[in-house]
Amino acid sequence: MWHLWIHKSVSYGYMQDCPMCWGSKLKRTERILEQTPAIRRVFADDKSRCPLPNLTWQDISVLESVNNGLKPVADLTDVLAGETYVTVSAVTPALQHTCRVLTETDDDTQLSKKIKTGILEELDAKYDNHATQKLIRISTLLDHCYRGGFNLNELEQTKTEVLDAIIQCHRMKNLENTEEQKASTSAQEVPSKKKKNTLSDLLGKTKKPPTSEAERVAAELVAYLLEDVIDGEENPLAWWKNNESRFPLMSLVT
User: Fold this and answer.
1) How far apart are CA 10 and CA 39, in angstroms?
2) pLDDT for the residue 104
3) Selection from 6-15, 16-25, 73-82 with the highest mean pLDDT
4) Which of 76, 112, 132, 157 could form a disulfide with 108 if both were Cys (CB 3.0 to 4.6 A apart)?
């Protein structure tokens, strides 16, 4: 059959198919459409007893429909498949972008529409998990490149989730420090020297009400959200490393 010949021809051109990536299917489809005139000539020149069936307009229509359905998300798939940079924080913006580019048009065939709908349904099913969605929301908010990509309800919900996560990490950190201090004190008991009185001791110190843990975390989050969004090419992990001193509590969860 002609599709076996095509399979060999595109394979020799290093267009190997990957079942887990629709980008490879798109490249194979594009290669076939690009080589259609040559394929037709080869099939037309076949003088064997059982000549190969040539490409019909129905075949070309199917290939074009597949190409139109997959092309809008091919580049996005390659970007999210990266291994040398953070991608989890880009999932929400990527899904929003995908929904826009996969909007059906009047020029789409029924097959193209079916492919687009199938991709969106598969993506919805893949991320239809409460724990996964929560992780993605928090990661996106903590990425200075994408934190503005929420609607109001999602932003308020995510702010609460981030506050809870920061407080939990801070308490765990304090617990670890307390245990280390106890171990250090018990290992080395040093008699303390009597401290001399200072002017502030005599006159009394002016104390302001202590700031609660939740208030300090909330203040950092407000200051963080007022920051300008940074270029998307910058590594968010490097950004947090450089700004750890400005956001000491928030940096615990990054």
Assistant:
1) 11
2) 84
3) 73-82
4) 112
**What does the CA dihedral 208, 212, 216, 218 come to, rounded to 10 degrees?**
-130
Which of 93, 111, 109, 89 is closest to 101 using CA atoms? 93
Task: Give tens-digit pLDDT for 179-210.
Answer: 767 666 665 655 556 666 666 665 566 666 66
- CB-based burial label for 66 (10 Å; 0-12, 13-18, 19+): buried
How distant is the alpha carbon of residue 61 from its chain centre?
34
103, 131 Cβ separation under 8 angstroms: no
Structure tokens at 31: 């290669």
- Look up tokens 């069936």; give the residue: 53
Residue 149 has φ and ψ, to the nearest 5°, of -95, 25
Residue 105 in tokens: 């048009």
How long a stretch of residues is the chain? 254
Cβ atoms of 239 and 144 within 8 Å: the answer is yes
**Which is nearest to 116 in space by CA: 78, 75, 67, 57?**
67
pLDDT in tens, 94-109: 888 888 888 888 888 8
